[in-house]
Amino acid sequence: MPLAGNHGGASGQTYSHYRIMDEARKFIRANKDRPFFCYLPVTPPHGMFSIPDEDPAWRIYKDEPWPEPARRYAAMITMVDRQIGEVLELLKEVGVADNTLVIVCGDNGGNDYFRDKDHPRGFHGPNVDPKTGVAFRGKKGTVYEGGLRIPVIAYWPGRIPGGRVSDHLSYFPDFLPTFAELAGAKAPADVDGISMLPELLGEPDKQKQHEYLYWELGQQTAVRMGSWKAVRPRRAAAWQLYDLSRDVSEANDVSADHPDVLARMKGFAEAAHEPVREGDWGDRTLHEKDRRAKGGRANRRNRRRVTVNTLPKRDLIPRGDWKLVYVSSESTSNGKLAKNAFDGDPRTHWHTRFGAEIARHPHELIVDMGREREVRGFVYLARQDRGWNGALGKCEFFVGELLQQVRGAKDPTLAAEFAKVKKAQRVECKPTRGRYLRVRILTEVNGGPWASIAELGAIGK
């Protein structure tokens, strides 16, 4: 949402968080007379630690003898705390407090912000118990407890007793089936979450438990089974095993002492893992705009640029008359169409279908070159963004005078295998005359099921 006078970064006329809270209050007032679900993803404190000097929370910390970013960070948390209280008061004001479940939670473990020699785990020590000094290992961005454990508060007057602490092992996907049960609805069958409503209502005997929880983050993997925690910090690293009931700091790897436990948890990891596949993006314009806005105008000037390669023009058959005759699969939802493979713009590319139903090899394109040509080879350009999904591995080229001849041919004019590079790759064949060109893709460089081409050309005359 464009805000007048705001250009990204920490400057501007409007503090966006205030607008977010205003909209939440409007939503609650507008829906107070019917069931509603208010999702309120507050942004502070995150990224840029900025709060207006006029905010009451800043006045609490502005004179503390701390680094200014640490003071701003503390003020942002106090501001959000105040605003959560305002939301609770609003629920009372409109008469729905006793019929509304409020859940407040973090989104990831704490970071070691503002570290110095006196504060090695960050100035505010989010992963260190201030009373005992016991610390969680890791931080935001890791799969150790410091990255995974988050605070959660559930508030429901008359239904959830105040002051109670739960040790129930749960995670974000549990919210959907919990809310569905509250609403008398049925959660989708393919979700991994388990309703935690019995635990919330103080009925632990009725609460179902997870057999295990599983995480992947980059090359990191973790499995939780009861109090057992298995971690593989990198793909090539050995698995580690911790007993969190005795070692919440994950300091003592006991994998050698409990090989049977680790073997079971590695089995869970193998069963839970799914290969990464590219998402089904629509128009990326707004996404890229939002991503760049965080750094403001300076970030737009200095952001890393992607080098865009092109097809060499030497000996290339003109493609102005080329027309698509057939494509086995294309991703229409986000404009990754087959015609992009010869549109002359390396910034666009063809990609096979990768939504709910993934198209698999072999993938094919058939092109009418406009008239009979003498073809002596081909040039292929991989997609020119930072992705590799679909980049061609092994493929076959067929050239023929008649469409049916090319469509049914079994012996290729040329069989080739391309490397994982972004620059144009040239392969040559014996001179062959024909009007129709068929490309049959057999493999992808990463072993995935897709195919993609930024630009495809034919060498000849």
Describe this structure in words.
The structure is a single chain. By secondary structure, the protein is of the alpha+beta class. The chain folds into 3 domains: 16-209, Alkaline Phosphatase, subunit A (3-Layer(aba) Sandwich); 210-274, Arylsulfatase, C-terminal domain (2-Layer Sandwich); 323-460, Sandwich (Jelly Rolls). The chain contains 10 helices and 14 strands. The strands form 4 sheets. Strands 7, 9, 10, 11, 12 and 14 form a 6-stranded antiparallel beta sheet that branches. A hairpin with a 2-residue loop joins strand 4 (220-225) and strand 5. Helix 1 (16-30) runs parallel beside helix 3.
Summarize the topology.
Blueprint: H1 16-30, H2 56-61, H3 68-93, E1 102-105, H4 145-148, E2 152-155, H5 175-182, H6 197-200, E3 213-217, E4 220-225, E5 228-232, E6 240-243, H7 259-272, H8 285-293, H9 296-302, E7 323-327, E8 350-351, E9 363-381, E10 394-400, H10 403-408, E11 414-417, E12 425-441, E13 452-453, E14 455-460
Helix pairs in contact: 1-3
